[in-house]
TrEMBL record, chain A:
Organism from which the protein derives: Leisingera daeponensis
Keywords noted in UniProt: Signal
Classification of source organism: Bacteria, Pseudomonadati, Pseudomonadota, Alphaproteobacteria, Rhodobacterales
Name of the molecule in the record: Substrate-binding domain-containing protein
Keyword Cell membrane part of the UniProt annotation: no
One Pfam family it belongs to: Peripla_BP_6
UniProtKB/TrEMBL annotation, chain B:
Protein name per UniProt: Branched-chain amino acid ABC transporter permease
Signal peptide: none
Primary location group: membrane
Family: Belongs to the binding-protein-dependent transport system permease family. LivHM subfamily.
Protein localization: Cell membrane
Membrane topology, from the record: Multi-pass membrane protein
This protein's record includes keyword Nucleus: no
Keyword Manganese recorded: no
Keywords, alphabetical: Amino-acid transport, Cell membrane, Membrane, Transmembrane, Transmembrane helix, Transport
Residue intervals passing through the bilayer: 6-28, 134-153, 221-244, 256-272
Length: 382, 282
């Protein structure tokens, strides 16, 4: 390499460094996203949504008047590694708050590592029952997704015999424990309950049991590829004629895998769908498409939750006047903020939000009902 | 109940036998432990995605599938695999790398998300008093005919003998006039094409995404461990035992016990009868 080129590059590097310094924000926020692992599919939409939120926060004055900058880390890894990655952002890069989308095992590891010293917003759908200093939760819990929806479907679809099927871990089991009470309250009965290991990729025997049970509704808490495989076979056997399906983690990607042919009478309950027809949701979708193009990773409830998390962090820190955990914990109860999901309130450290019921028939979610201000039955003492 | 269980068994066994066929040829005949086998199933399953994204008519799915898989397999055979014949452990590592490469390539082209494929025949028909998906019935019949033809051809053809000679003593095989380069490339590409075809056939009934191949590699491997290498009968027996155990236990007990039994069987066979039930002389 010639000397002049080296000089040029060196000065370019200095300019770049200076440029970064002058644009450097006052507050760094760590965003923990699943770039790898089973939830890796949601990495890109999570990053995009978080970036949009940061733009929005900075445009409206930042957090307590200071601009924010996002620093990302991959947490689609085992809990110990994820905690290490978060620690690097915290102590290494100086992140002053965290927003995370990852599984519950990683969450517990992070709670241990943070020790209540840094605010941490956990955003995905989860089973509930997690409280800690500095922890705020925006994700839907089973009570929110089911309490309004099961009575609604009982009435509109006239169903009463429920079959519960899920993967064998705590989220499906906790969801179904609650579902049983809502089904009983709505006058229905549970005609079968089944948990399958993650390694199973064919569901023929489960489908046969559903058929014989005479179920007219199936509550699905299978996740990802398992949910796709189950739903494809379900329709293949013509069971969509016998029973409606309700899923609490069937988002846009999963529906794309299930396909239009296999989605007849498949309902999904969530706090977000890309097809929500409110002004806020439509403008969010427009911003997303403008920033990342029409080929961008599809918007979905998981990826979009990073936006919710950052907006809560900003609203709460502004209300508390600082990013200090004690001040934020004291100010947390009753914090309100508006997002594409609707008007939200923090109660018991969980997010009371609008819950949407969408019908996936035809391969695209069509919102058929919305329930405003649904609070979680989870509540953490303040 | 029993007729659906019987049809489920027929479906599971026939599809597993088809998926495992390619692995049996490549592993059993060429002594290449092809860890990228599942990725060829995956590429085959993406064939309908290719045709629909290019706006091609549905009947082109089969030629597009075979052409894509054959091209990929041939390129890999000429550049990497041919150096590894008879080196089982080296081939395992190399093909594991190839598997990762193929997954990443498909992810780059089609993205990480799920794809869906419509079956050419939809709806259910009544068979033996049970409503069963018409497409599955057609596939079961098709695979049975295919295997019967393969068995008939295999019994008459000298290709299998030539391959055995080639792997056993390549120099001597060359000396007696066997074109080993062509023969080995042909066997590898044929094995991969059957995997691709299996993927195409299964596509309307499964999830389709870049990581799907692993499931099929593992189940195929179990079938070969139990059935033994080197014969079509062994393949059929292995597929029958593995798919049968999973289906029957899954139906009468639970899926967890079914999977547990499959793992236990595979371990017992590897330990006590490493050549499987029907093994050809090595």
């Amino acid at each position: 390499m010639s000397k002049s080129t080296t000089k040029l590059l060196a000065s370019a590097a200095v300019a770049l460094a200076l440029g970064t310094v002058s644009a450097t924000a006052d507050i760094k926020i760590g965003v923990l996203v699943p770039d790898s692992g089973p939830a890796g599919l949601f990495g890109p939409s999570t990053r995009n949504s978080a970036t949009l939120a940061a733009k929005k926060i900075n445009a409206s004055g930042g957090i307590n008047g200071e601009q924010i900058e996002l620093v990302f880390a991959d947490v689609g890894v085992p809990p110990a590694e994820a905690a290490q990655a978060a620690l690097r952002l915290w102590k290494g890069e100086g992140a002053q708050a965290f927003v995370g989308l990852h599984d519950s095992a990683v969450r517990e590891a992070l709670i241990g590592r943070f020790g209540g010293q840094v605010p941490y917003v956990y955003t995905p759908v989860y089973e509930g029952n997690s409280c800690a200093d500095g922890l705020y939760i925006t994700g839907e819990t089973p009570s929110q997704q089911l309490a309004p929806v099961i009575p609604h479907l009982t009435e509109t679809e006239g169903v009463s015999k429920w079959y519960l099927i899920g993967h064998d871990y705590n989220w499906p089991r906790d969801t179904n424990a609650l579902a049983k009470t809502y089904i009983a309250d709505a006058g229905g009965e549970v005609v079968g309950e089944e948990y399958v290991p993650f390694t199973v990729s064919e569901f023929d025997s489960s489908l046969q049991r559903i058929k014989e049970s005479g179920a007219d509704a199936v509550l699905i808490t299978l996740v990802g590829g398992g949910s796709v495989g189950f739903n494809v076979s379900f329709a293949g056997f013509g069971l969509d004629e016998q029973a409606i399906r309700l899923g609490t983690l069937i988002e846009e990607n999963t529906l794309a895998g299930i396909g239009a042919d296999n989605a007849n009478r498949l309902y999904s309950s969530s706090g977000y769908f890309s097809s929500i027809e409110s002004e806020a949701a439509a403008s969010f979708a427009t911003d997303y498409a403008e920033a990342y193009g029409t080929d961008a990773p599809a918007l979905n409830g998981l990826g979009q939750s990073a936006y919710e998390g950052l907006m809560l962090l900003a609203a709460l820190a502004n209300k508390a006047g600082s990013l200090d955990v004690a001040a934020m914990d004291a100010a947390a109860e009753g914090t309100t903020w508006s997002t594409p999901r609707g008007d939200n309130t923090l109660t018991g450290r969980h997010m009371a939000q609008t819950i949407y019921l969408a019908d996936g028939s035809g391969g695209a979610f069509n919102i058929v009902a919305s329930f405003e201000g649904v609070a979680s039955s989870e509540a953490c003492a303040n | 109940m029993s007729s659906v269980l019987f049809l489920n068994l027929a479906w599971q066994i026939s599809t597993l036998a088809l998926v495992a066929l390619g692995l049996a040829i490549v592993f059993g005949k060429l002594r290449i432990m092809n860890m990228a086998h599942g990725e060829f199933v995956m590429i085959g399953a993406y064939a309908p995605v290719i045709t629909s994204s290019m706006g091609l008519p549905g009947w082109l799915q089969v030629p597009v599938c075979l052409l894509t898989v054959a091209l990929v397999a041939f390129a890999l055979e000429r550049t990497i695999i041919r150096h590894l014949y008879g080196r089982m452990f080296d081939s395992l590592l190399a093909t594991w790398g190839i598997a990762i490469l193929l997954r990443e390539a498909v992810e780059l082209i089609f993205g990480r998300g799920y794809q869906s494929v419509s079956p050419p025949i939809s709806g259910t028909i009544s068979v033996l008093g049970a409503d069963y998906p018409a497409y599955r019935i057609a596939v079961i019949i098709g695979i049975s005919i295919g295997f019967a033809a393969l068995y008939w051809w295999n019994a008459r053809s000298k290709v299998a003998t030539r391959i055995k000679a080639m792997v056993g003593n390549p120099d001597l095989a060359e000396a007696v006039g066997i074109n080993t380069a062509r023969l080995s490339a042909g066997a590898f590409v044929f094995g991969c094409c059957t995997a691709g075809l299996a993927g195409l056939i299964l596509a309307p009934t499964i999830r389709i995404e870049p990581m799907m191949g692993l499931d099929y590699l593992i189940r195929s491997f179990f079938a070969l461990v139990v059935g033994g290498l080197g014969s079509l009968e062994g393949l059929g027996i292995g597929a029958g035992i593995i798919a049968g155990t999973q289906s029957v236990l899954g139906a009468v007990a639970s899926q967890t016990y079914g999977y547990l039994a499959v793992l236990t069987l595979s371990i017992l066979f590897l330990w006590l009868k490493p050549d499987g039930i029907r093994s050809s002389s090595r």
